[in-house]
Write a structure and sequence with these properties.
Layout (H helix, E strand, L loop, with lengths): L1 H14 L6 H14 L2 H23 L8 H18 L8 H20 L4 H21 L5 H8 L3 H14 L9 E3 L5 E3 L12 H19 L3 H12 L4 H8 L3 H24 L1
Antiparallel strand pairs: 1-2
Helix pairs in contact: 2-3, 3-4, 3-5, 4-5, 6-7, 6-8, 6-12, 7-8, 8-12, 9-12, 10-12, 11-12
Length: 275
C-alpha cells in the first residue's frame, strides 16, 4: 500500500501544469513579472490551477460534509493568485511549494472567518491539550485514553466522542505547526522563508532547523499508532481512507488518531516555547 500510494501522489504533483511546457511557463513568468501583463497572469493561474484542486481535495477529506468542495477551491484560488503576484522566480524556491502554502493558508483563513467551529468544540480541544500536557509532565510519557478521561473527569466513551467532534470540526494540520504569518497575513512555511544560499542568515536557518528538530522529537514521543498515522499521512501522502486500510480500522477512527496526535503535538510544542 505505502509503496504504491506515494508514487500516485507524486504523479499528481508532476501533472500540475503539464499542459504547459517548461519554456512556455518561463516565458509567462518573465512577461508577467516584467510588464504585469494580465493575460500572462491568467495563463499562469490556469497552468497552476490543479494545485488548488489538489490542496482543496486533501483538506476537504478531513472536513464536515457540509463544507462544499467548490467553496474550498474558490478560497484556494485567492491564495494561488496571491502566490503568483508575490512570487519571485529569481529565488531558489519551487513555485509549487510556495503556492501550496499560500493556497492552504487562504482556505484556512476563510474557514476561520466563517467561525463555523462551535465554541464548545474549541474549548474541548484546549482542555484536551492542557490535560495532555499536564499528564505528560507527571508521567513522562504520552497518557493513555483512560488516563486522559480520568483527568478530564469523563468516561472513555465521552472522550472518544469529544475527539470525534474536534476531528469533524477543527481545521488543524501538522503543517500549521511550522507555519508563520507573513506581512500580508498569509501563512508561509518556515522552510520557505530560508533565504538564498548566497545570502543566508545563519540565525534564521538555525531557527528553522530547531523547529524541525522540536517537531521530530515531539513526534517520536507519540503513541505508536498515532506516530504511524502521522508518518503515513504527512510523509507517505496516504489519505485517511488508505491509512484505515493499512491499519485495519475505519476512516473515522484514523481521523480521531490524527486529531489526537496533532493536539498532543500542539500542547508539547507550546510547552517547549513557554520553557
Amino acid at each position: 500500500m505505502t509503496s504504491e500510494a506515494k508514487p500516485r501522489n507524486e504523479g499528481r504533483a508532476r501533472r500540475i501544469g503539464s499542459e504547459f511546457g517548461d519554456v512556455e511557463l518561463r516565458d509567462l513568468w518573465k512577461k508577467y513579472k516584467a510588464t504585469g501583463d494580465k493575460h500572462a497572469r491568467e495563463r499562469l493561474v490556469l497552468a497552476y490551477s490543479p494545485l488548488v484542486k489538489y490542496v482543496a481535495g486533501k483538506m476537504g477529506s478531513g472536513l464536515p460534509s457540509y463544507v462544499d468542495d467548490a467553496d474550498l477551491i474558490s478560497y484556494g484560488l485567492t491564495g494561488l493568485i496571491s502566490a503568483i503576484e508575490r512570487f519571485e522566480p529569481s529565488r531558489e524556491i519551487k513555485f509549487e511549494t510556495y503556492a501550496m502554502s499560500r493556497i492552504k493558508g487562504s482556505i484556512i483563513d476563510e474557514l476561520r472567518s466563517m467561525d463555523w467551529v462551535p465554541r464548545s468544540v474549541r474549548m474541548k480541544a484546549r482542555e484536551f491539550e492542557r490535560a495532555n500536557a499536564k499528564l505528560e509532565h507527571k508521567l513522562h510519557r504520552a497518557p493513555t485514553d483512560q488516563e486522559l478521561a480520568e483527568e478530564l473527569d469523563v468516561s472513555t466513551e465521552e472522550l472518544q466522542e469529544h475527539i470525534q467532534q474536534i476531528s469533524n470540526s477543527a481545521v488543524i494540520a501538522l503543517d500549521e505547526l511550522w507555519s508563520v504569518s507573513d506581512s500580508s497575513g498569509g501563512q508561509v512555511s518556515l522552510l520557505d522563508t530560508l533565504e538564498d544560499p548566497n545570502a543566508a542568515d545563519p540565525e534564521k536557518s538555525y531557527d528553522a532547523v530547531n523547529v524541525k528538530e522540536q517537531i521530530a522529537e515531539a513526534i517520536s514521543r507519540l503513541p505508536e499508532r498515532e506516530k504511524l498515522v502521522v508518518a503515513l499521512y504527512y510523509y507517505e501522502n496516504l489519505t485517511l481512507r488508505e491509512i484505515g486500510e493499512v491499519l485495519g480500522v475505519t476512516e473515522s477512527r484514523v481521523s480521531q488518531l490524527h486529531t489526537k496526535a496533532v493536539l498532543r503535538l500542539k500542547s508539547r510544542l507550546q510547552d517547549d516555547i513557554e520553557l
